[in-house]
Task: structure prediction
Amino acid sequence: MTSPPRSEHAEALRVSIERLRGLVAAQRWGALAAEQGELERAVEGVTAEAATLRAERDDARTETARAELHLTAARQVLEDGPDGYIVTDDTGIILQANRAAAQLLGVPLRFLVRKPLALFIDEVDLRIFRWRVNNAHSRSQGEWPVRMRPRQGPSFTAGLTVTAFVGHEGHASDLRWFMRDITARQRAEELATAQDFTNRMLESEQDARAAAEAARLRVEIQAAVSSVLAATLDYPAALSKVTGLVVPAVADVFLTDLLAGHTLEQMAMACADAAGAERLRARRPPDPSSDHPIARVIRTGDAMLMTEVSAPWLEHWAGSGESQDLWETIGLTSVVVVPIRSHRQTHGALTFGLGPSARRYSQADLGALKDIGLRTALALDTARLFKELEAEQRHRDEFLAMLAHELRNPLSAVTSGLDALERVDESSRAHLLQILSRQSKHLARLLSDLLDVSGVRFGRLMLQRQRLDLRDLARDSLEVLQTASKTMGPTISLRSDPGPVTVIGDADRLQQVLANLLDNAAKYTPSGGTIDISVAAEDDHAVVRVRDSGTGIEPEFLPRIFEVFSRAGGATGQARPGLGLGLSVVRELVVKHGGSVAASSPGVGQGSEFVIRLPLHRDEEVPSSGPTPSSAARSILIVENNPDACDVLRIALEQSGHRVRTSSNGKQALEETRARRPDIAFVDILLPDIDGCEVGQTIRGQPGGDGVFLVALTGLSAPTDPDRALRAGFDSYLVKPIDPDRLSEVIAQARH
Ligand code: ADP
Result:
């Protein structure tokens, strides 16, 4: 039931009473009864309303009581609470304060009122305090620390909060301040910060110490590694010593993989974990052409750093599942791979790995480890170089021993033959003369091989080029061979193309090539064996094959067979006389003719084949013009202090129709050339007064000296002389004793 508004009930009652009053005045008693109902209803309404009002009043009273209680509590908190509570006007003059505030500021409560709060603020914080006072109305401000100066007691840091109360009609009124001593808290914070700082200092000091320690270790390792590597030329031994240094100082696992042809071989290895080491021994290094990190480092020459190994990376690193198991057992966590590489060559790679410890490789480690790679490479270079030098030295020693032996045999035959010549009868004398002739030819051959080798090695051999049919050369060589070994040697056969096999070349030199090959074939083929020669034109090449059924060649020796002084070891080679020069002369001469030579053999005891290919000459081609002997008379000066040598040369030249003058020393020679410029000057390199090279240079510098053809005369004993002479400006050189063919070659050269 909704009751009408209170005013309505009261109004209804007032109207009802008015009406009763009117009825009584008019004395209309009958109508009074009807009005009674109205009146009762109105009274009821008012009564109900009064009841509601009373209830509401009671409620309000409870509410007020509660609010008052709150207020009292709040006031009590403000009055008696531990925090300072101050009310100031908007300029900061204290209007009211609680006990805690008085206590904090060291003043009795009653003295606080009307004092400016600024009085208690330390000078350092006054500005900010004023700013806060001025801006308290416009900004909400959180607690901020302020240095407080109490009238009594030590200064302290207060946490200050200010709230502005907006007064009547929006006018600024008072400011309420809360203040608490936060000195202890701040000190705790400061302490914590300080502690933190100290901790950090300690940590960084530890870090620095660890870094210094690591750096020291790196330097020590580097030094140790280099001294180990430098101390020995036996590099497998050196490498295994290095592994001992590296593990455990800078790595838990260390691998050395060296290139051997197209594969990698594990040379030295170490692992801090004994079981791991055992398993690593059987490790197979990756294929150098693969995508493996080690292979990539070797190919690119760039080191690799993997600070934290991830599972997929480890899988890639390990390759196979079995190998992955191994690396997981070792617990590889951090890896560095560096190339073993010097400016000369790349030898392989070093791998440094760390196990499950907290250690990890960093950029700083990389530098030091790369350095170990470089030092290893340098040590390997040196060791290899030393090995090569040793081998060369050994070769040379063997060669000298062999040379002495080879020369002594024919020489002693010649000496004793000459001795016997006078005492023997006619028939024996003829035989002796044959022997003498053969042996002296052999001697001459040995010497000419030696001369050629020195000549071709310096690359200054002259070719007298002309058109030649190789079939004729082969036939001539064969005849020589057959007369030489008439007694039951191997059977020799020659097969030639029906048409000419023409080349442009030096007949004597190509004859020498064939003779050397045939001599070898005969030397290394027992009687009863066969030697087959074939000469054919194949495409653009003239091809000569010399095949024998003799001792054959070991496959390991084949690649070195054309090298100077190289002879097969063991029963195949050393049993037979020889200097290991013939084939190197063959190769040099063939190459000089623009051709090539190859040796092959199915194996020891199965014969060998040597194939020569020379550019085939077609008839329409004009033979390349080389120097041809000249008969034109030249004016020649010989500068030579040995009178015999000088005379021999003079006579040879005069016989060819040249005009010859001689000087026995440099000074005289220079005067001579200044007076009369020769066409050609032969100058001995070793003169008593001035160095022959210098004499040559001075002649060159004289007026018209450009036109003099300078020829150096050198001894075999000084193989560097020709080089020196050519550098000094000589046009050519002759090695003493002078070969007449070379002499005419040189004279021919001078015509140009
Ligand atoms: P030399 O015969 O004087 O030792 P070469 O330079 O002519 O020197 O030959 C070098 C080496 O090559 C020989 O010592 C020999 O071992 C090997 N050789 C050369 N020709 C043959 C051949 N026809 N059969 C087997 N071995 C050969």
Summary: The first strand starts at residue 84 and ends at 88. The pocket of adenosine-5'-diphosphate is lined by residues 520-521, 524, 548, 550-551, 553, 561, 567-568, 572-573, 578-584, 608 (CB under 6 Å).
